[in-house]
């Protein structure tokens, strides 16, 4: 009895290459689907909460809403239907209910729950893709990366969780691809496509007497002479629209009203002067007015900026606002973003004239609470992140519906089932042996699953476990059978290692699916080569073990040559390719390696034993 059990164990161990495939397959399934054990069966994930939302400060990004007013939320369409009405909404998050009073929208953006560890691309998951082109055509790779870094900072500050930015070479220059899942296009374009060049300017009026006047900046006085459309300042002539510098302050000559007065813009602050943007409730907020909503927030500026404010506002006359009774300076603070005013000029309290002000207050507004909140958050974000080294132009914008990706996956699944059935039928007709055709299908499915499993994220522990089990199998095969196979051993170690340490894996999109198809097509060809070589001319006749091994070695010479050629063709696409091309190349290489190092040795062993 003991001998029988030992013999049975030796028979199972004889197929140790197949066991490596099974272990890698099981590991891949866990790597792909382990997240489903921790994700609720129903619900949507919050990816953005606007400042005007009643849920701001109560719920957080990443929270999963499972019910709305007691009704299950199955997907984003159901979420939209359940939250479209105003009134009281009860959201269930982690089995806890939160009640919110809604007037003009809930202000929460959600996406469907991701139940796999795959980083699905927009082609499958749905979302927005924008291509941005730098206005400057001669940017270096380092400057483009600086643009990407600033945009990523803006996205993080603004709370755009599901967003990816990547520089893309195009026509000798660079484009920046922005991809986001579920985030509104206007939020992306309004935030990321702006250069973010911030300027705060004060209007200075110079009174003229006989075409001459004096511009006072701090304690210094500068002679101004009107020359019929041009100015002479300190002996230098300035045309309308020109900029000039006085006392380290940039001025712009805007216009003149006859010979009575001249209007100048003086730059008080730039984006470089902003050292801190306040977002706490004590220094920022939104207020309701008769015409809509206004927002405000304070900023901390540099000492140089505070000194410019002091010099430019000193000695400016004031007036009394009849509506409020408050006294203000006869000038205003104009805010510009990318050369465009952000709103009407801000009034300056009279008691601030000539003061060393380091905490000015920024104001703006909107017709609705949502509009004011978005404007406030967007301006705060741009001021925090700083200006881009160049402006950006939107080249293209495409919105991809998640229903398209779902439909594609369903169609791909049906196509795969049909392909498997066709391969099985052809193989059975060709060899008339089900023990040759059926393992071929098992190998095809295993290659697909293992390749996808390597693409999964957050699966290092799973693949390390697979590596340890493979080491045990290899050790037993060498100890009990005194048998080794260099390609199988290399695959048993390299494939789990790739799954554990692959940097962030890669996006699983249409290009990745194309790469899998290419690799699987090569894999089927290889299996046919192995079967044909082993059975050539001897389909029904037993042959020696030495003869079978010789034929399989000849088949593997062809298999490795084909794999090496394909990998060599894909490597340049990985190193110099971008976007879809690079994803296709990576997936193809990984699929081919899985085949030649793991599944081909297993299939060869199956064929060897069938033939003998």
Topology (SSEs and partners):
Blueprint: H1 2-14, H2 16-33, E1 44-49, E2 64-68, E3 71-72, H3 76-83, E4 87-93, E5 96-102, E6 108-112, H4 122-125, E7 127-134, H5 141-158, E8 163-170, E9 173-180, H6 185-192, E10 198-207, E11 212-217, E12 220-226, E13 230-233, E14 236-239, E15 243-246, E16 249-257, E17 261-270, E18 274-277, E19 284-288, E20 293-301, H7 303-313, E21 318-320, E22 327-337, E23 340-341, E24 346-349, E25 361-366, H8 369-385, E26 392-400, H9 402-431, H10 434-455, H11 460-481, H12 486-501, H13 510-535, H14 545-576, H15 579-611
Antiparallel strand pairs: 1-2, 1-6, 2-3, 2-4, 4-5, 7-9, 7-26, 8-9, 10-17, 10-22, 11-12, 12-13, 13-14, 15-16, 16-17, 18-20, 19-20, 20-25, 21-22, 22-23, 22-24
List keywords for this structure.
5 domains, 612 residues, alpha+beta, Multidrug efflux transporter AcrB transmembrane fold, elongated, 45% helix, Pdz3 Domain
